[in-house]
Structures
1.
Amino acid sequence: MSISDDPQFMREILTDHIKYPRNKREGDESYVSVHMASASCIDDVHVQIKMDGEVIKDLCWHGTGCSISCASCSIMTELLRGKTRAEALVLADTFDKLMNLEPCDEDSLEEADCFANVPKEPARINCAKIGWKGVRKALGQEIRE
Amino acid sequence: MIDAQIIRRDFPMYDNGGLYKDKKLVYLDNCATTFKPNQVIDEADRYNRCITANTKRGDYALAHDADVAYDASRETVAKFINASPEEVCFTCGDTMGLNQVAFGLAHRIGKDDEIVISYHEHASVVLPWYRVAEQTGAKIVFVPLDENGRITPDGLKSVVNERTKVVCLASTTNVLGYSIDVKEMAKITHSVGALYVDDGAQSVPHRKTDVKDSDADFLCFSGHKMVGPTGIGVMYGKKELLEDLTPLMWGGEMNARFDVEGNVILDDPPSRFEAGTQNVSGALGLAEACRYLQGIGFKDIHDHEEKLRRMAVDGMKDMQKMKVYNPDADAGLVTFNHETVFAQDTATWLGSKGVFVRSGTHCAKLLPVFTGSPATVRASFYIYNDEEDIQAFLDAAKHTEDYLDVYF
């Protein structure tokens, strides 16, 4: 059973990350830092990644945004720590598919699957994706729309 | 007195039984843009359907008819703000007008001169003047706000001096809805020999504008915020100042002659500022919007908006976790935040109930210095809103804390 099969559980995960955001801190100069500021919306998020070869050793974020963008950054930073660059990009693709309502391996997203209903409010899709876009940028991949 | 139900008959956005996607349409984002009545839509379309020809360059009857309609629109708009037609230049909107004024005046501004704006100003005021200051070595000076966030005559007096070249302020601010007495502000500005630029985007649609009375040197506004079409606006300037303004756009129909030596003779204002093929359909629509609003009357418009604003502010008093930033607004809007819910989440929640409001910085990205909040929610009212709209807004706002319900 996927997380998105249980709305109550999805809500609990979301509420928990809104209340207690994880990895919300500023990294030092050893981190690759990306500033994601949107013209159309208030989300203003910095995503920071520390690599060890091809492996994401640590990642963190800080900034302001709506509940969806902040919770998404929080969950994403937990999910991607310890993943390789290639694994992280596959997960970023999977998350994009989830936002586009395309079939995808939802289980691989773990808690990030709790955003499955965000496309019900299309204006918030970019908020859910802003941290992920930051990670793509930090990993040196052009953002695909 | 305005009967919004009768007004709505003119607006096709309410044709679908007042529904939008199966929910009652409660549109409260009128500071951003307004709905258009059939009268405006039809008049704008008259150009496309009946008199399409390029203006100011055709020698045939059809082109003449297009010219006559375009000129008549200018006359209507000029009367609407009590200006002469040769002082009214059509633009593509307030932003273009404000850019034209700023860059067009740059040659009069030098190193260490001062340009006065405020934290309230929209990006379309702040950014052109930032750029002009950078190019000329001038300094941007902010009018101090009083404890309620208002710009006062004394505040302006405290910053203008012999180095001040321009004061540019919104006559009604777009986030908090505070209005200033343009006449008094222009007088203070003129007392030090500076020019006064009035950003009328949020005032012209809601109250009578009289440039002769206010004595503003320039006034810019947009059509789409006053039931007119998008893509059309106005830059008014006093005749002698338009003569000295450098055009922002160069091209066809703004020049009289040019030769291979590089000599250029410019056309007179207002044509000088209307390079290229113009938005004729938009100009016709804007003129009709002026007639439409005049037909209702600005006293009734103001009374109606104030009635709705009071109902909203009073209704929010009972919501303990709601902070209203402008219970004393002069314009028909209310700006607020829930103590524990981010502005965009509040707007999404209200939107899920069919109540459409704006959240964010509202393009006034300096104002958070005053409000202390990175984002706010704004509900703004117009002639077609009614008490039922406000009640729907209040009913939804009461339950803002349930905002996550939107996703489940």
2.
Amino acid sequence: MKIVYTDALIVGGGLAGLRSAIATREKGLDTIVISMVPVKRSHSAAAQGGMQASLGNAVMGEGDNEDVHFADTVKGSDWGCDQNVARMFVTTAPKAIRELAAWGVPWNRIGKGPREVIINGEKETIVEKDEAHGLINARDFGGTKKWRTCYTSDATGHTMLYAVANEALRRNVEIHDKKEAISIIHENGICGGVVARDLISGELIAYIAKGTMIATGGYGRIYKQSTNAIICKGVGVAIALETGIVQLGNMEAVQFHPTPIVPSGILLTEGCRGDGGVLRDKDGYRFMPDYEPEKKELASRDVVSRRMIEHIRKGKGVKSPYGDHLWLDISILGREHIEKNLHDVQDISKTFNGIDPADEGEKGWMPVLPMQHYSMGGIRVKPTGESTTMKGLFCSGEAACWDLHGFNRLGGNSVSEAVVAGMIVGEYFASYCKETHLTTNTFTIQKFLEVQKAYLQEILSYDGGKNIFDIKDRMRIIMQEKVGVFRNGKDLSDAVDELEDLLKMVKEITVTDKALCINPELNEAYRVTKMLKLALCVSKGALERTESRGAHFREDYTKRDDENWLNRTITTWTDPNDTMPTLSYEEIDISKMEMPPAFRGYGKKGAIMSNPLSEIREEEITKIKETLGKVDRFTTQEALLDFDLPKEYKRKNERMGVGYD
Amino acid sequence: MIDQENQEVSNEEEFRKIEITVFRYNPQNSNTKPEYQTYTLEETPGMTLYIALIKIWSTMDHNISFDFVCRAGICGSCSMVVNGKPRLACKTRTSEFEDGKITLLPLPTFKHIKDLSVDTGNWMNAMSKKVESWIHAKEETDITAIEKPVEPDVAQAVFELDRCIECGICLAACSTKIMKEDFVGAVGLNRTARFAIDPHDERSDEDFYELIGDDNGVFGCMSLMGCEDHCPKDLPLQTKIAYMRRKMVKM
Amino acid sequence: MPQQDSTVELLTGKDSVGKKSKIPARLDLLQSATGLILSFFIIFHIVFESSILFGKAAMYRLTKIFEGEPFIEGGEPLIISALAFGIFVIFIFHALLAMRKFPSSYKEYQRYRTQSKMLKHSDTNLWFIQITTGFVMMFLGSIHLYTMMTQPENIGPYASSDRIYSDIAWPMYLILLISVVLHTGVGVYRLIIKWGWFDGSNPRANRIRSKKIIQAVVVVYLVLGLLSLGTYMKIGYDHQEEYGNRYSEVHK
Ligand SMILES: Cc1cc2nc3c(=O)[nH]c(=O)nc-3n(C[C@H](O)[C@H](O)[C@H](O)COP(=O)(O)OP(=O)(O)OC[C@H]3O[C@@H](n4cnc5c(N)ncnc54)[C@H](O)[C@@H]3O)c2cc1C
Ligand code: HEM
Ligand code: HEM
Ligand code: SF4
Ligand code: F3S
Ligand code: FES
């Protein structure tokens, strides 16, 4: 057993982790990033669509600024987000993208003059301004007022991650890959580091640091079907939960995407439907117009996902060895259009399914099914990124419930969050590390190492004959079927019960190979145990939340209930021997909101049970605005919601045509 | 308990059997010798090597090691030698092999970890440092100001080269790299070309010469084109290595 | 000890101003340049030497032209000696440069062979042809050049044929011919790729095109060479009784 000391320890080498590492190195702190896989393979690399930042360069983004981005984000979250954090985020996002540009991310750039685009399936010509020539371009994404999503073709996450990783290498961030954090070391409510397992030698290593950050991404793999990478198992979030002290927030808030391809779960972009592609059932029938006569296939992500599942439940799904699915038909757009505009979709479909979507008729239909896509929930942190309950433990990126996304995140806001949080939280984290001294004593370190060693040995000694893979499959199926797009009290309580049984059942497995070193079955045994705990947090949270908000949809409580449920679900695992998480709730204070709860502008109208405080705050806001008289938007904004940002991140952002206004 | 295999047999269709032979070796276990193990399984529609290997792992042999992350051809983790050719396993469909026989070996030239798993991360990080794979600019950027404009075509050209996923296939397909341990390979040379054409990078040809002007760099390449012909991202390695060579030889 | 650049490089890998040595760049360029010169030489050599296909007289005339007959009465075989010497120097220089690329130990060779057999990749296999043919030429080419340097006067329809047939030089020439044609073909293809000469707007398609054209030229040259070799053998066979006699135009 080995002990490694450093100033700043970051668990997870995705966009969030690596950008934070840069922040700590800039302050001269020795920094180690540990990651399960080589950092450039982190799941951030998979983001295709783009990153939101209100630059307002493109003609379709004109007039965009922090305020518009803020409003979109808050509405998107169904008022579940922390508006303070949302403000911090939108103010920093333009800086993040400009920093990335300077680091070499080859953002798609605007070419002046006319170009042809497709808006709502119609060809239109837009004319880009001369002075915008060469500036960063943006595309349209769901739920945004302006075209705000900046991109590098279909590989946005990849180019961002490589730029950030290379900058980290440049600053001599120490990267230790093939190391998995399996437990958090803490004493007196202060985090001291982690116990990590070398995934090659099996050796246990205690990484001891002044401050520790978890940036381990999402945990989509608790679902049978997910667009997430297969390493997205949530071990990082689970070890925080297992401290018994750290809180998780909004675990039931899980986003589903309507059109990943079956069986691989690889995402087919929303552009397929945007350009006019349609969904069909087993009879080749286009069913969406029956459900959503107005928007049809182009209704919002969660709505389309729900309708698809509804249709499959009516027995209209196409049977396959991988379960039921529906068809996505883009062949009607014509070969030319597909080869030019949906090239990547064609590529994915051809390589992974052997289907050329440009082939006419049934032959070209692609099998699709709504699948888990994003985890809004995670480790509950303050706006500084520090755990609400454990000192010295920070968290950023998808693993965190910083609470930018509330109950639904907007496309393009999460890679953006990962980098922006890396900047902001990274800065607070670095300051913390700078001011702190190492206190964890070796006795404590040894104790935590011993516990983990004993735990692994215990797993190897189980001899009940059961198989961890079966338990995992069962868990993933339960989550898929009972805690999915549609939720209801009965299914959820079944799910909670079954998952609890599964968690208990882990003690009845047998691991074939007894080696402590590289042993993929042993890895699975402890990972699945942790995944089960997260799955329980998700389903228990969903069971208790008797309303529908954002991505969380209850068939038995279809309205958003601001009166009783404008709060954040907080989950803890108070005792290691528990088989069920402990829930509590954190109020979201309307009286501090810059934008009190209202209708989102999409989805069903009148599906809200509003809170009388909303109206009061609304009046208050009008009054504040009146007293202020004629002032610039920054003064108004500050009067409504004052927020802090470290470093120079609060400075105003320059924009084409309007300067720093 | 749910039985995966039964679930699939319940499907009426008949699928052919395929044979997957895997190189098995754990260098850490002194009792084991390198050996080949063959697994027979039923080929389901659209099966990729990812699906096949996960199936083998979860139902036949819990101890087999391999690396997948994105399973979508994006992250570059799953490179291995498939019937002699280095490729991304997750992007390889089993139906491509008419006789249904597939042999899988770990990627050569990298440190072998176990079975099909090799250590690419440390090599790639060292390579990135060696060619200083980042923007070199003298002045600091004011991130509140409007970004520096870039010609759309130039941005596109940089993007083309930035698509490399560090999968290591160009190295496994390069006999030069197989013979000369320290050769930076097409991946490294492409990286320098990427920064050489990026308008943000102020390095001169002379600076690049310091990084790749030797037989471990661009002059080590013997134009074998294994890289060009196997790169899963179809990067223009042939022309970019030539581009760097022309630049460097002018020094 | 005086400050010498090579000493500094020996110790630091950089030159005296701390810059990386420019020698690798020079060597790479020279390797290609010598290869290119030799290639041009061979392209013409085989054509000239196949003049025998047009009859003894044609070959004789050409030989004489090379001996500088238009300017020097009766021709001067030493010119050929000198030419051969020049080529020999380039040849050796090229070989030395190319040898840097040879597998430097059996282990390297074995790794290379195992991998390339597994890979079954055509351009990689071409390189194997290149190093083997180069290796073969190093010996046979040297013998041939030595002959040309030392006996420049023994070139001509009968002298050459006697050497090829009666002195049993033909097996050497056969091997040398195949080697040199393949080596030059592969070498020139590699030069095109290496420096990106004919990339055009579609480098991938043009690479395939270059390869196809070169394949065709290689075949033409092989046929040409084999026919000439056959012709020399035929003449040598007919001439064996008069071995040692020289061709003379007056004969006609
Ligand atoms: C298919 C797909 C497409 C997407 N497209 C977009 C998009 O277009 N726009 C957008 O904004 N968002 C998109 N997202 C979401 C976005 O990509 C992620 O939310 C974001 O990249 C998360 O970044 P991260 O740094 O938090 O985590 P990740 O990038 O997931 O990194 C997690 C890191 O933690 C490490 N790790 C995990 N567990 C441990 C452990 N126990 N010990 C040590 N290390 C560990 C991993 O190795 C990895 O390095 C997409 C997501 C998916 C699935
Ligand atoms: C008439 C004789 C020869 C001709 C026309 C010739 C031509 C060429 C050419 C054009 C090249 C490509 C150069 C480059 O890649 O930069 C080449 C490469 C090579 N030559 Fe020759 N060559 C000849 C003799 C030899 C000899 C005698 C050897 C033996 C040692 C040799 C060994 C090689 C090797 C090994 C290469 C490959 C170098 C590499 O891949 O970088 N050649 N030759
Ligand atoms: C200046 C130098 C050279 C001269 C003067 C020269 C001359 C000749 C002559 C006169 C012949 C006819 C046969 C004979 O007389 O023996 C011949 C044949 C041949 N030479 Fe050379 N040669 C030269 C260099 C080379 C080199 C460098 C190579 C290749 C490495 C080469 C390869 C051959 C081959 C392969 C043949 C046989 C061709 C055939 O049979 O068609 N020669 N050469
Ligand atoms: S250049 Fe191509 S083959 Fe090489 S590492 Fe990059 S993507 Fe892989
Ligand atoms: S295969 Fe190797 S030798 Fe050069 S052209 Fe590619 S790097
Ligand atoms: S698993 Fe990511 S490329 Fe294959």
